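sry for the spam today, last one i promise. struct tokens for design, 323 residues
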């Protein structure tokens, strides 16, 4: 039975909800279409490839042989083409027909023999530590996060251009592009429990081209509590972008997550969409790390964590709720 929308602006709310629900679901799943050469596509391709190899019970090492991956994909492609919709799972994230068609298109762009992980493996994997990010030295952590933040900004821009070009000017972060990233990787040498380590950064207006993203991260390792300077906007920042709102982001160290760049890009986008009323709340994302090094992928692995609603999410177009 179809209920006629009633109440104040009832028809408008009904129409809005049906327009916003499909893209909202894709944002939450981090499956919004992105340009084929987007760094976000590279991460999605690797995760899908890893899961497909596990579904097919094909062992592999750190890199995935493309010949084995295409062989594992062959029966899945055949089933996807003969059905309205198919899904596969092996204890991890579900793979569906859309994923299979998408990765097949992406693999046509590959010219080598191996598919390699998008981010380096830990450089101290045998360290007994409660957190995955502690398996990375501070120096490697800063190097990886510099590229992660650069990829996230580039990926965010691609998501907006691909999906929200019609009103991209209304999205907070997109309205101040190009931006530079300034921040600090905090890993005190006496923080064995990982309670005081984090990444702190700001997205500030830049004079560079949109295609170039400057990332400047300091590294703090001295013992004791470290207090960052409050977020602020200089006169030069205001001159470049009058709409710029300074915001200090303070997430846990994303080193070792399966999708660090898509996580950040989708958090920024979800905050923008929330500020416009296109999402009911801003989102944060956390993933567990896929196993690294040679192993039998059929033996199982770490599952993804779902997007969750933070306890309180600010209606800032340029900020996400810290966790």
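last one done:
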């Amino acid at each position: 039975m179809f209920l006629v929308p009633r109440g104040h602006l009832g028809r408008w709310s009904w129409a809005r909800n049906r327009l916003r629900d499909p893209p909202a679901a894709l944002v939450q799943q981090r499956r919004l279409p992105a340009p084929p050469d987007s760094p976000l596509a590279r991460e999605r391709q690797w995760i899908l490839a890893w899961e497909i190899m596990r579904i097919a019970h094909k062992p592999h090492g750190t890199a995935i042989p493309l010949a084995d991956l295409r062989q594992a994909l062959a029966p899945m492609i055949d089933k996807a083409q003969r059905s309205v919709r198919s899904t596969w799972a092996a204890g991890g994230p579900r793979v569906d027909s859309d994923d299979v068609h998408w990765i097949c298109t992406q693999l046509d762009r590959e010219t080598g023999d191996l598919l390699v992980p998008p981010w380096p493996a830990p450089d101290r994997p045998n360290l007994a530590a409660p957190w995955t990010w502690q398996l990375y030295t501070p120096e490697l952590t800063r190097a990886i996060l510099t590229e992660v933040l650069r990829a996230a900004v580039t990926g965010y821009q691609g998501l907006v251009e691909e999906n929200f070009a019609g009103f991209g000017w209304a999205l907070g972060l997109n309205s101040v592009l190009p931006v530079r990233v300034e921040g600090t990787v905090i890993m005190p040498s006496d923080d064995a429990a990982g309670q005081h380590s984090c990444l702190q950064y700001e997205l500030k207006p830049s004079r560079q081209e949109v295609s170039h993203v400057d990332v400047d991260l300091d590294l703090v390792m001295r013992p004791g509590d470290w207090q960052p300077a409050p977020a602020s906007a200089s006169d030069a920042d205001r001159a470049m972008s009058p709409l710029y709102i300074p915001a200090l982001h303070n997430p846990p160290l994303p080193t070792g997550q399966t999708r660090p760049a898509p996580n950040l890009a989708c958090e920024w986008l979800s905050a923008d969409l929330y500020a416009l009323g296109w999402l009911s709340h801003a989102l944060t994302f956390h993933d567990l790390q896929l196993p690294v090094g040679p192993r039998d992928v059929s033996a199982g692995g770490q599952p993804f964590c779902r997007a969750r609603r933070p306890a309180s999410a600010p209606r800032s177009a340029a900020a996400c709720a810290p966790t």
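The helical segments are 10-29, 39-55, 66-81, 97-107, 138-163, 172-175, 235-240, 260-276. ok im logging off now
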